[in-house]
Amino acid sequence: MRVVIVFVLSALLPLSLCHNWDPFAWLYGRQSQGYYYASLQADTAGGACPDECDCPPTFPVAMYCDGRGLKAMPTIPSRVKYLYLQNNAITAVPDSALVNATNLVWLMMHHNQLTSDGIGRKAFLKLEALDRLYLQHNNLTSIPSNLPRTLRDLRINHNKIEKVTPADLEGMANLTILYLNDNAVTDMGSSLRALKSLTLLDISGNKLTKVPESLPEQLHQLYLEYNSIDALPESFLGHFNQLQYIRMAHNQLTDKGIPANTFNVTGLVELDLSFNKLERIPIVSTTLQHLYLQANQIKEFTLGSFCSVVDVTNFSRLQTLRLDGNEISQQDIPTESSLCLRLASTVEI
Description:
Order of helices and strands: HHHEEEEEEEEEEEEHE
Oligomer: single chain
Low-confidence stretches: 1-41
Helix content: 10-25%
Mean pLDDT: 89
Radius of gyration: 30 Å
Number of helices: 4
Structural class: little secondary structure
Largest sheet: 13 strands, parallel
């Protein structure tokens, strides 16, 4: 066997010398070898990685500048798609800061010191592939201008935004996630009308006195807790077909402010109305699974709120019911409630 191998190699060697071809290239591969060594070196395509950041050779389209004490935007190579700038002290994004970064898909700038005056009107204009923009925990007083229409995930919570206008979100039909919670928003007008794809909207912890107009029909999760809302509009949930989670705890809701059968809609999974001013249990759908009504002023346990008819085949799907912190006790629960609420594993009075 060794004789055969030696014979084959001896035959290949002259051929390789004549044609400048290496018969052992398959073993270590000059091209593969070059690619291997290049992968361990810094990729300088589109510009070198700035000294204050890290650009991993194994993931050259990412640039990590988080937690470096930066006060200004670094130079960004054009190859970068994922830029991490969170946990710094950056105060501004000039118009020129991102002109070379047109391939960005993710831009993480949360936990900085950004101000609205410090963000140029054209700063984000050319980011035509941007999918995620994180600006939470800054000092913004308004939503930046000219946000890319490709955005699907915008997080701008924990800022100082007081008003949202239709122009702020115009053309953002691809947006599916919007976190605006913990700002100082008092009015949103019809700014949500353009968000045809929105599935999660968090506007909790603001200064709203009414539910925003034109809520997107595709909403799956709606968070409105910690506002000052005292009433709900007629047919509040009538046009939703995918809404499953509503949280309106810590508002000023009263019985008078909730139209009849507002929450008697199929599809709803979780409803949180805790820490309001309700005196009665609102009528809910038999398909609801989790209901939170603690810390209201409820004085009566009305079984009809859960089951219009009580028998073997008609019952509520409630698994969690919280009524603690109200003006009722265990003795107020009628005996037939065990038939209506047969699936409830948690009932707190």
